Amino acid sequence: MRRRLLSSTLVVAVIAVLLLGVPLGVVVSRLIVDEAAQELGAEAKRLVGEVEYARVQETPLDPQQLEQKYPGRFIQIWERGTPLRVTVVGEPPPSGHLMTEDAQTNTGVYVRISRDRDQVEQDVRARLLLIVALAVAALAVAVSLAVVQSRRLTLPLQDLAKIADRLGSGDARPSKHRYGIPELDRVAQVLDRSATRISDLLTREREFATDASHQLRTPLTGLTMRLEEIVASSDEPETVREEGEAAIVQAERLTAVIDELLAAARRQRHAQAEPVAVDEVIIQQITEWEPVFRDAGRILRLEGTRGLKAMATTGGFGQVIASLLENSLRHGGGPVTVTTTCGENYVVIEVADEGPGIADEIAPKIFERNVSGGGGTGLGLTLARALAAADGGRLELVLRRPATFAIFLRPAEDDGSRNRVVSGPA
């Protein structure tokens, strides 16, 4: 590309110099010749006047004085009379190339003045050489500017090619290089935006892999417990049937979790939110987690307003409840109470236990990734908040001691069937 820029610039410069230099040379040559002829004609007229004045004053012409006054000229003067007087001043040019002008009067004075044409042509050649030198200088300047401009254009293009190659190899860091050329700067901005998007996509893919491994662990644990119950109760057919059905539900929930994770990775869950029966989801989760809590010597309670409906996705909302129950099981203590209430703008689901609560240094960043009170991965609450936000709601820590988390969801249409019920252990 640099060679093309140089060659094209040189061709344009040569054409411009020829279009301007050739006519300029012709005009300058003619001007010099015409100026020399006009000067010679003026000298001839002036000399006629001097000869006429000398005749009137009856003063003889002095050839030496005329030669000093008109150096480099060959002068011939004819004066009419008897006899005819001829005066010659100077020597004719040795080259024999003369430029001649003449003048005469009505009284019989005729003057012819000549000069060497080679001197005029030499002056013309000197001016033409000056024009050629200026043309060469102009071409040199044009080539220099072309070199500078080509470097200014090609170096940024090479840099952009390296950035694009690095972007294709997986290094999605924005370069933030700018070159002072609007078109190239726009290309650099587009590459930077693409790098940012690719970096976000790669980050989301990595987070999705981490989140999937974490979120799938909970239903797999529940499924394992159900299968263990089946094995332990193999001599009780009724129990085996119930535990088998529960295992099927766990497997179906596992499939739903996978679908929800994929939807969240594609940022589609908010558009999938629909009216969900809050009680059904919570009771399902309590039923699944109750054996684990019972083995730990703890109980689950469901309290609050029944018959509430909220805008959410069943899998996402269930996963948020499961994450909060698992968090209470791991880090809390005592009974766990799930309370549902409805305000003017939100359906609120609170999950509280009677444990020691959350330390003050952890509470402000409890929803950040890799932040855990101990023994956990630090991902559960982060994912739970992301899932709640994807449904158009939010998850907040409303009380540090004892730890109380609240899910705020958008209410669905009121069907008038709500009533206040306080239940005991689920």
TrEMBL record:
Report the cofactors: Mg(2+); Mn(2+)
Domain (Histidine kinase): residue spans on this chain: 211-413
Give the top-level enzyme category: transferase
Give the E.C. number(s). 2.7.13.3
State the Gene Ontology terms under molecular function: kinase activity
Q: Main localization of the protein? A: membrane
Q: Which SUPFAM superfamilies match?
A: ATPase domain of HSP90 chaperone/DNA topoisomerase II/histidine kinase, Homodimeric domain of signal transducing histidine kinase
- Please list the residue ranges annotated as the HAMP domain: 151-203
Q: Indicate how the chain sits in the lipid bilayer.
A: Multi-pass membrane protein
Q: Where in the cell is it found?
A: Cell membrane
PROSITE patterns recorded: HAMP, HIS_KIN
InterPro entries hit by this protein: 2C_sensor_his_kinase, DraK_HK_N, HAMP_dom, HATPase_C_sf, HATPase_dom, His_kinase_dom, HisK_dim/P_dom, HisK_dim/P_sf
What transmembrane ranges does the database entry give? Answer: 128-148
**What keywords is this UniProt entry annotated with?**
ATP-binding, Cell membrane, Hydrolase, Kinase, Magnesium, Manganese, Membrane, Nucleotide-binding, Phosphoprotein, Protein phosphatase, Stress response, Transferase, Transmembrane, Transmembrane helix, Two-component regulatory system, Virulence
Give me the reactions it catalyses.
ATP + protein L-histidine = ADP + protein N-phospho-L-histidine
Q: What is the protein name stated in its UniProt record?
A: Signal transduction histidine-protein kinase/phosphatase MprB
Question: Which organism encodes this protein?
Answer: Nonomuraea antimicrobica
